[in-house]
What does this fold into?
Amino acid sequence: VPDAEFFAVEQAILAAERQRGAALHASSAAKSGSECLASSAHPLQGCSVGAKAIAGDSKKRKLPLSLAQQEKRPAPATTATLDYKGHSIYAYTALEVDYHCTQLLKDPPSMVGFDIEWRVTYKAGEAPRKTALLQLCSRRQHGKYQCLLLHIAHSGLTPALIQILECEEIKKIGVGICGDAHKLHRDFGVQCVGLVCLSEEANVRLCSSANGRMPQKWSLAGLMQELLHLTLDKGTDIRCSNWETCPLSSEQRAYAATDAYAAVKLYQVC
It folds into this structure.
């Protein structure tokens, strides 16, 4: 029995020693882990670049320059398309053209959006075709817009239309309007007066020594984007279509009216 008691006591002592050793080992491991975490909290510490980046917990870490610029750059806005919702009058006989121009002269506008269309030729050496369509867009009573689509390839120039073109008091507004007036003179012998070139007007507004912008030759679509942040549909399918066809399609009429209307809207902000 004494031997059994001695053996039991010895086993108890050994068990206690094992528990104490395990506790010491756990404490040592925890301390080592803390030191390891402390030393690895800033893995770039000791590196000149890393030291600058992590100096002070209160300092905000900066993004790379390229990413920072992307962050500051505003999201691209969706650009709307200019849509003419006014009244269009299409005329292709001399009688109709003269009638509508006479009506316009009864209450003459101070200015009209002006544009012309003609059939594009693709054969080398072939002379340009004569002007086929002339557009006059104006703001009428109650603020409504009206666009005359005059198919002069079939009607010719009538007395009332010539009166409008030669009237100094009715300003003709357009981009590249001097070239259009020259073509009309070459095609029909009429002298257009009261011309206002939107490209020149825009350069006066946009270009100065202060902002360093240089004058340029603007397109109608380019000015629309620059000044009104609107897209002008200038698809080649319609732009280069046969403008001598009679009657014109609804797509051709909409395209032609929108161009003349765009000139009016741009003049209002130039």
Summary: Residues 64 and 120 are 52 Å apart (CA to CA). The chain is about 50% helix and 15% strand.
